[in-house]
Amino acid sequence: MTTLWHTKSTESNKKGDCYLKKLGTVQRSVNLTKTRVCVDSVQNSEPIGFLYNPYMADRIAFFGYLSLINILDDFFDRMQCPQAYHQYRVWQTEKNNRKLPEKEVTQFMAEDVIHSKNGEKATFTIQVQFRQNATWQGTIAWMESKKIQQFRSALEMIKLMDNALSESGSGDDVNWE
After folding, report:
1. Is 11 inside any structural domain?
2. Residue 116 lies in a domain
3. What is the mean pLDDT of each run of 10 residues along the chain (177 residues)?
4. Which among 15, 119, 124, 125 could disulfide-bond with 39, CB atoms 3.0 to 4.6 Å apart, if both were Cys?
């Protein structure tokens, strides 16, 4: 069962922040997971840059592919979207669970502000649609070349990013065509 969310601006909020209010049981917002990945440099074949998402309070720095995956996976867990197919086993009590209330989610940045952000080396827009089979499925857009590709796993997404960031191409079986 999925939930429909609706953006509502409040008059008392001078910043123009929006709140997503639960309307019914139809569909979740598709833009909740759309994240801008701005790669500013590459060191030891690992990208370094910032993540931007309307529902993140501020930009978040990442230092390599593992950092990128961990930050986004934690964000998806807190947003409960897309819902994980598998749950992690942990040795802590349920009271330490960091999920946001399902009733409302705060939008901190407008989407047009996020679309204006670009990395020095490359810029990608990642939208994870599903988290099934202990990995991600979705689309990735390489903004400089205006190419969009679907990926079936986080590893395939990493290979696409690595291919775009390498100057001569990595020769992998995953490419942007």
Report:
1. no
2. yes
3. 39 38 39 91 96 91 96 88 71 57 67 88 94 91 95 96 77 64
4. 119
